[in-house]
Specification:
Blueprint lengths: L1 H21 L8 H7 L3 H11 L1 H19 L4 H25 L4 H29 L6 H10 L2 H20 L9
Helix pairs in contact: 1-3, 1-4, 3-4, 3-5, 3-8, 4-5, 5-6, 6-7, 6-8
């Protein structure tokens, strides 16, 4: 039964990676719209919730790098590299929080908010390090603008959609956390 569960998680993680690959096409490949709506974030967060912290972390790392290598978007350095750290944190933290907190609706929202804050903090640290390596500067105000102010539409979409999808999937017994 354990091998079956791991196979199901692998298949679902591959599905979430595929979604992360194609969802940015919904923004019309307009970088400004993509930066506001954060389409890569949703499949990674869902992967963490549904497949657990390991698969969430793995999909989070791979998704932006894969898109960068194949499509050139987002640009590899520093954007895709920083996003890989950010999304890895989203996937790992959402999965970990959902695993350790009670399986009640308010805790899904709490898990999501914690994951979103952790991911944004990791993004800020990664961006500061990458900019330092390349000789650029990265201020706290620029971090606030990139991670929060410019991303408000995406944050709203994530807070609305992710919990609804998780609750729906768990309520119809397709993806009960204790079954995977």
């Amino acid at each position: 039964m354990k091998k079956h569960n791991q196979l199901v998680k692998l298949i679902l993680a591959a599905l979430f990676l595929a979604l992360a690959y194609v969802m940015p096409f919904l923004t019309g490949q307009i970088p400004e719209v993509g930066a506001m709506l954060c389409p890569l974030h949703i499949p990674v967060l869902l992967c963490g919730f549904i497949c657990g912290p390991f698969w969430g972390l793995a999909v989070g790392i791979v998704a932006p790098l894969l898109r960068s290598f194949i499509l050139g978007m987002p640009p590899l350095f520093p954007t895709a590299v920083c996003m890989a750290f950010e999304l890895a944190a989203y996937g790992a933290v959402s999965g970990l929080m959902h695993k350790i907190l009670p399986k009640k609706k308010p805790y899904i929202y709490l898990s999501l908010v914690i994951a979103m804050l952790a991911g944004r903090a990791v993004f800020g640290i990664a961006k500061m390090l990458c900019m330092g390596i390349s000789g650029g500067e990265y201020s706290f105000m620029l971090f606030i603008a990139e991670a929060f102010t410019n991303a408000v539409p995406g944050i709203i979409v994530q807070i609305v959609l992710v919990p609804i999808i998780v609750i729906l999937l768990e309520s119809i017994n397709i993806l009960k956390s204790d079954k995977l």
